[in-house]
């Protein structure tokens, strides 16, 4: 419990914005331990704290579970406490992605309504290690290997992850020590999901082969790469401003003079500006844009996701 409380205390002490924090709680062990720690720590720091639980309506008994989480939260002194019932069907993508999208939409709405300083999520160090391993396996670049950020703004609402350096075993022990009975999400153990297989098989195999430090080390790699990625992103922001050729696209000479790591980030940012959806924009698109600069042999336009063509003409990239 001490580790979880300390992590929450650190986050709340450093939080600049006024207003309540809202714990997003599924009823699972990680977010339940987070909610319990927040209920303890926040009043001592003079910070109002509430809880939000989302009922996706996808599993039998989900409404009762959400109500039980909310009832517990009220007894723990959290206020406001809200159960948000969301509709998941009719959204694109698989059911998991649709549920996540609906959940984040609802969390942002409730945070805005309460003028919240942030929404607290229960991702742990183990979740971070799994994320890094999954990213490595799909050949991700430094951004993917940076894992989940400790803080990110979604539509102006800070999403905060205070437990990224807390072991999952600690959240489980904290729940046990408090006599809480967390809910087990069947998806977490369903081998149909890559993350569940990493959790059940891949990470334990790595720990067995390389030692117990592996989980913390993977999370550390994420932190190191997050810092480097942020620095490169800042350089790329400045470089994009430098290579703009007025309204006439980007200067090829300016782009060619940049280090590749900065240039590909500039091209990625510019493609997003031109309307390419980030999720659809792959390394392949960016490599094709880069080839217009560094591998020029008179090739035709590059078609960004969404169909917009980018061509090279008279020393410029035009979108
Ligand atoms: N139904 C929900 N309602 C509110 N918040 C949720 C819900 N589901 C997930 N979250 C938030 O998102 C975080 C990550 O959820 P996810 O299901 O990916 O992870 P988890 O490791 O199973 O977490 P937990 O043990 O808390 O369920 C949770 O810790 C919680 O903060």
UniProtKB/TrEMBL annotation:
Gene Ontology CC: cytoplasm
PROSITE patterns per the UniProt record, alphabetical: PROKAR_LIPOPROTEIN
Residues that bind ATP: 26-31
Domain tRNA(Ile)-lysidine/2-thiocytidine synthase N-terminal: 21-200
Reactions accelerated catalytically: cytidine(34) in tRNA(Ile2) + L-lysine + ATP = lysidine(34) in tRNA(Ile2) + AMP + diphosphate + H(+)
Localization (cell): Cytoplasm
Domain annotation tRNA(Ile)-lysidine synthase substrate-binding: ranges: 250-317
GO biological process, one term: tRNA modification
Keyword Aminoacyl-tRNA synthetase in record: no
UniProt cross-references to Pfam families, sorted A to Z: ATP_bind_3 (PF01171), TilS (PF09179)
Main location: cytoplasm
InterPro entries referenced in this protein's UniProt entry, alphabetically: Rossmann-like_a/b/a_fold, TilS/TtcA_N, tRNA_Ile_lys_synt, tRNA_Ile_lys_synt_N, tRNA_Ile_lys_synt_subst-bd
Enzyme Commission code(s) on record: 6.3.4.19
Molecular function via GO: ATP binding; tRNA(Ile)-lysidine synthase activity
Source domain of life: Bacteria
Alphabetized HAMAP family for the sequence: tRNA_Ile_lys_synt
Annotated family: Belongs to the tRNA(Ile)-lysidine synthase family.
Role summary: Ligates lysine onto the cytidine present at position 34 of the AUA codon-specific tRNA(Ile) that contains the anticodon CAU, in an ATP-dependent manner. Cytidine is converted to lysidine, thus changing the amino acid specificity of the tRNA from methionine to isoleucine.
Free-text comment about domains: The N-terminal region contains the highly conserved SGGXDS motif, predicted to be a P-loop motif involved in ATP binding.
Protein name as catalogued: tRNA(Ile)-lysidine synthase
């Amino acid at each position: 419990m001490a580790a979880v409380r300390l992590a929450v205390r650190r986050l709340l002490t450093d939080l600049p914005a006024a207003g309540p924090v809202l714990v997003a709680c599924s009823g699972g062990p990680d977010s339940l331990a987070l909610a319990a720690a927040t209920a303890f720590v926040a009043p001592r720091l003079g910070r109002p704290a509430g809880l939000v639980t989302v009922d996706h309506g996808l599993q039998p008994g989900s409404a009762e579970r959400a109500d039980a989480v909310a009832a517990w939260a009220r007894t723990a002194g959290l206020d406001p406490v809200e159960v948000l019932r969301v509709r998941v069907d009719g959204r694109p993508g698989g059911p998991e992605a649709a549920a996540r999208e609906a959940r984040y939409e609802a969390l942002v709405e409730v945070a805005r309504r309460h003028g919240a300083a942030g929404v607290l999520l229960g991702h742990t160090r183990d979740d971070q290690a799994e994320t890094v391993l999954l990213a490595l396996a799909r050949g991700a670049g430094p951004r993917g290997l940076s894992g989940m950020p400790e803080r990110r703004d979604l539509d102006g609402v800070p999403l905060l992850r205070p437990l990224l350096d807390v072991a999952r075993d600690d959240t489980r022990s904290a729940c046990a020590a408090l006599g809480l009975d967390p809910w087990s999400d069947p998806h977490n153990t369903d081998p149909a999901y890559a993350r569940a297989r990493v959790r059940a098989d891949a990470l334990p195999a790595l720990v067995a082969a390389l030692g117990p430090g592996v989980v913390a080390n993977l999370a550390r790699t994420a932190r190191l790469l997050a810092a480097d990625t942020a620095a490169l992103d800042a350089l790329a922001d400045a470089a994009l401003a430098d290579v703009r050729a007025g309204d006439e696209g980007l200067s090829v000479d300016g782009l060619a003079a940049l280090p590749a790591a900065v240039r590909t980030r500039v091209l990625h940012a510019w493609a997003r500006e031109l309307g390419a959806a980030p999720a659809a924009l792959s390394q392949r698109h960016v490599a094709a844009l880069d080839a217009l600069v560094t591998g020029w042999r008179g090739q035709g336009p590059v078609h960004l996701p969404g169909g917009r063509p980018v061509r090279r003409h008279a020393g410029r990239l035009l979108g």
